[in-house]
Each structure stands twice: as C-alpha cells, then as structure tokens.
Amino acid sequence: MTTTAPRPVVVGHDGGYASSGALRYALAEARRGAAPLRIVHAMPLRTSAFVDLPVLAEELDAERRQVEATLRAEASRLAGDVAVQVVTCHGAPASVLLGSAEDARLLVIGREHRTGLRRLLGGATTEDVAAHATAPVAVVPEGWHDAQTPRQRILVALKEPAHSAELLGAAFRRAEQSGAIVRVVHAWQPDDRVSGDRPDAWTPQALLVERAASAIDDLLRPWRRAFPGVIANVEVHLADPRTDLLEESAAADLVVLLRGEAPVFGPHLGGVLRPVLHAADCPVLLVPATSGQLPPLDLELERAGTMLR
Questions:
Q1: Degrees (nearest 5) of the Cα angle 293, 299, 302?
Q2: Domain assignment of residue 173, given as a range
Q3: Sign of CA dihedral 189, 193, 199, 204
Q4: pTM score
Q5: How many helices (H) and strands (E) does the chain have?
Q6: Does 281 lie in the same domain as 171?
Q7: What is the per-residue pLDDT for 115?
Q8: In 3-state terms, what secondary structure has residue 181?
Q9: Are 144 and 276 in contact (CB under 8 A)?
Q10: Domain-terminating residue out of 90, 116, 140
Q11: pLDDT in tens, 147-206
C-alpha cells in the first residue's frame, strides 16, 4: 500500500526580524499537521549592461549559500522534530512565493510594513500573494509568538452563505485542535435611503438582526453536530464591517476570512479584507473560495444595507 506524503507548510522569509513571527507560526502549523516545512527566500536580481555576468553569478551563488545557511540555522533552533527544507530563488518575491507554494497545504507570510512610494515602486507582496495563492494564506504580525497567552477565540467573518462551508470548516477544525471558541460575526451598515423596494421604511432593524442571526444559526447546525466539543457563538452587528472586525480581532487568536476570485493581474482583496489583513491584532487566515456555493442570505437582508465586502 502506498502512502501519500503530506503537503508542506510554506513560509516566506525575507531574512529579517519581520519574518520571525511568520516562521514561528508556520512551524506551529507544520507541527500541528505533522507536515514538513518549506522556507522560501526570494532574492531580487537587479543587474546592468556594465556588470560582468560570470563574476556576478559567482557572487550571487555565494550570497545564496550564505542566506540558506542563515535560514537553516534559525529553523534548526526552532523546528524540533519538523522536517525543514530551505529554498532560495532569484526573482520577484510574490512570483517566487506563489511558484514555491503550488503544492502547499498552507502558505504563511509576514505582514508587510512598506507604505507610500516604497510600496508603490516595490509592489505589494503580501496582497499579491494573498490574492493569487491557490492554498489558504496566513498573514502573521511580526510580533506573533506561539508562547503568548492564547485568547481561545477564532473569529469568522461571514458575509453570506455562499462558501460558508470553507470558512466554517477551517474554523471548526482549528477550534477542535486548540480548544478555542468559534465566534461567527456578520456585520453590515444599514442604508438610510428609503425606496419602494427596500425594507428600511417598515422593517425594524432589530428584526433584521434577528433574522440574520437565525439564518447563520441554521448554517452552523451541521458543524455543531460534526464538532460537538466546539462552542460556536453568533454575533450580528449593525456597524462598519472594517471597524467591527478590527475591534473583534483584538480578542481573537485568528481571523478567518473568505478570499474571492482574484483578477489575473494585480491584487484585489476588497474594502474589508485589505485593512483587516494589514491591521488585525492577530494572524489572518484567507480561505480561497471554491466552485461550490450555497443560496444567498434572505434577499431582504441584502437590500437592508451593505454587507461585508
């Protein structure tokens, strides 16, 4: 009987302190899933017509070996029984990471801190990778450490029933492993405009909230049966989704979000995913949408305001 080798956890490492949290998170995930860890380092290649290429190749190879040795030393200090592979490639960081993670079960990257002109000229690696990876992507703050006191809460940002199976499945499995509570949050801003085909004029907001909570409870029912040891709570908020999720992340160990289909070129994460990705107080897990979908929420709820986007 043949056995299939476990797919690796892949982590991007830029060689600096900013990647230390991502490395620790990736090691914890690899250990949790009995999977190998692949550390990927991209080495941008910038050359000139006045540079002697044979000499440059020797210097680049020496630099690559030095980077590999440094990363291996750091990994061996933290890895324990996790099998570690180090990969260094010349190329744009986003392209290198995406190419190296085609077989990954999880791709882990550190939160990017470049802003303004530096981010515009150098590209947004975090957003490019998060938008286009085929595997789930975890974005980790640089200060993350697995020794910190757990908050015992996994936050699920639920926009609509479509693709809720991916989100809830990821959250319940992690909650079962860690003993955390699943907190499912759905937020939208009511639209004050009133017209003949909108329920705002005659439907109390409290009733809309009650209906949304009931619909989400229905979605949770099979997951609660499958994971009887996991406690799951539902919160429906009339609030700006971005502000609401950032506030909720302060009491969570992990935020789980759905990532929709990305365009062929450039990142496209939407008005909620982007700020949460860059400012959440804990790691953020982006789960890619699949082709399977469920019916949308009550259309009256959709018409009542702007839901998570």
A1: 90
A2: 153-307
A3: positive
A4: 0.82
A5: 10, 11
A6: yes
A7: 52
A8: strand
A9: no
A10: 140
A11: 677 889 999 999 888 888 889 999 999 999 889 999 999 998 776 554 444 455 456 778
